[in-house]
Design goal:
single chain; 209 residues; 9 helices
């Protein structure tokens, strides 16, 4: 069975281009949102490292980009920031983390608005790209909110867990990636499908669909 995006070059080149462009754009702007949130809270580290830009090329990870082609899903270069430099010591890191998924939700909503409101005036290729872009951004938003390191949702634990339960965070920092891989291997995306469908429906409703 073919996996990844490379087989599409010979079978559906327009879809291949749409998927690669949508993934690079969605991942790049996701990381830019992290950098912007940190910068707005006073941490200039992302700015100094050249990450305060919407240019997706600056946010690509070589291995993550290779996975986009070979597996059909990848990741960007994580934005480094200093939690101690943020204006809010308790909530600052969570705000930075949530900025990425929020950006993906806003991008998905924008794609839905354009696709629905200008449906009659858009060529088929544009409609196809907007549909792909919408789906990828919803998937990225929902997936990244899983409360397991290294995903963004893990930062929420620092807010909601009481101090006496903070040892859970240390455990997840150590074993979260292994747990995440196990979840994915045993149908993680299938488990997320109801939530993805719900979020997609809400965004389409907001867009006027």
């Amino acid at each position: 069975m073919d996996v990844g995006l490379l087989p599409l070059i010979g079978t559906d080149l327009p879809l291949f281009i749409a998927l690669v462009a949508a993934l690079i754009g969605a991942i790049g702007l996701h990381e830019y949102a992290h950098a912007l949130a940190a910068d707005l809270q006073g941490d200039r580290m992302p700015r100094a490292m050249g990450r305060l830009t919407p240019n997706p090329i600056k946010h690509l990870d070589p291995v993550g980009s290779l996975f986009i082609l070979l597996v059909g899903f990848g990741w960007g270069k994580p934005v480094e920031f200093r939690p101690q430099a943020l204006s809010s010591q308790r909530f600052g890191a969570a705000v930075v983390a949530l900025a990425g998924p929020l950006m993906n939700l806003l991008l998905a909503l924008a794609a839905a608005i354009v696709a629905i409101q200008f449906e009659q005036g858009l060529p088929g290729t544009a409609q196809r790209f907007l549909g792909v872009f919408f789906s990828i951004n919803v998937l990225l938003a929902v997936f990244n909110l899983i409360p397991l390191p290294p995903l963004d949702g893990s930062r929420l634990l620092t807010i909601f867990l009481p101090p006496k339960r903070q040892n859970i965070i240390y455990f997840l920092d150590r074993y979260g990636f292994i747990i995440l891989l196990a979840v994915l291997l045993f149908g993680g995306f299938t488990v997320l499908e109801p939530l993805i469908s719900t979020v997609s429906g809400v965004l389409i409703e907001l867009a006027g669909g």
